[in-house]
What does this fold into?
Amino acid sequence: MIFSWIKFRLRSVNAHGLHSPFLFDLYNKMTDGATYYMFGPLASLRSKMLTDTRKIEVFDAGAGSHLHGKKEKRKVSDIAGSSLKKQKRAEFLFKIVNEFQCKYILELGTSLGITSCYLAAVSHESKVITIEAAPEIAKIARENISLLDLKNIDVVDGKFDDVLDAVLANQDTLDLVFIDGDHRYEAVLKNFNKILPKLNNNSVVILDDIHWSTGMEQAWKEIMKDEKVRVSIDVYDMGILFFRKEMSKEDFSIRF
It folds into this structure.
């Protein structure tokens, strides 16, 4: 990951290196320092999870998961420490949803539900479906969602292989998909290919931890080459994909 970070720093640009009006405008909006009224309650809930000493039973659901080992008791705070997005990145996701007015949202990997809440808090008219393999973690996610009174989130229990097809069958389209679960090369490609038919011209797909392993990096490289992907953005810890047919096919590395 250190080597990947060095390579990213050498090739990445900021606003001054962006010649695309679309990306220049997006960069400025994502880095304008704007805050929203829900950021306070969301940050407080995030902090609460980082200090929660409850122990729950978890099991491994795939490489890169927030679950470690076959089956064990872990503190909620430990799970939070290894799985929660940094506050800056969680707010970045909120802003993406807000900027593109994403109404139908799918998250692969609920964890404790904090990111789910950021995705859903933009608008009560949106619908977030999030999938979590560990029942005890899903239970806490539901508690957190309830604390923020977000009624537009559905938590689906089960492994992606078992429930994703059924979830997608009930969706006509998806405006945003956040893939943050099984980080195995084959799983990432399989899940990406499953969601492709549900995307529309304005859809946004975000992959987490694209430099977490050589397998993740390879999966990202292959996804970037997909003919339906028009613009890809590597921000190091995440990869962002756009599918607008009117855009030229380009790949960027940007320091957001």
Remarks:
- The longest strand covers residues 199-208.
